[in-house]
Amino acid sequence: MPYTIPIGPYHPALEEPYKLSVRCVGETVQQAKIEIGVTCRVIELLVQKREWVPAVTLIERVCGICSNVHAMTFCRAAEQIAGIEVPARARYIRTIIGELERMHSHLLWAGVAAECIGFHTLFMEIYALREQVMDLLETISGNRVNYGMNRIGGVNRDIPDDPEALIAATQAMAEPIERDIVPAFMNNPTATRRMSGIGPLSKEHAIEWGVVGPMARASGLEIDIRADRPYNAYQELGFKIVTQQAGDVQARVVVRALEMLESVRLVTEALRTIPSGPLRAFEGMPRIPPGEGFAVTEGPRGEAFYYVASDGGTTPTRVKIRTPSFVNVPSLEVMIVGQQFSDMPLIQASTDPCVACIDR
Amino acid sequence: MGTSHTAEADLSRAALAARLAAIPGSAAAEEHGDSLWISAPQLDVGAMAREMRALGCRLITMTGLAREDAETTIIYHYCLRRQYVSFKTCTRGGAIASITPTLRMASWIEREIHDFFGVRFIGHPNLVPLLRPPGLKEGFFREAGPPEQD
Question: Which ipTM was obtained for this model?
Answer without folding.
Answer: 0.91
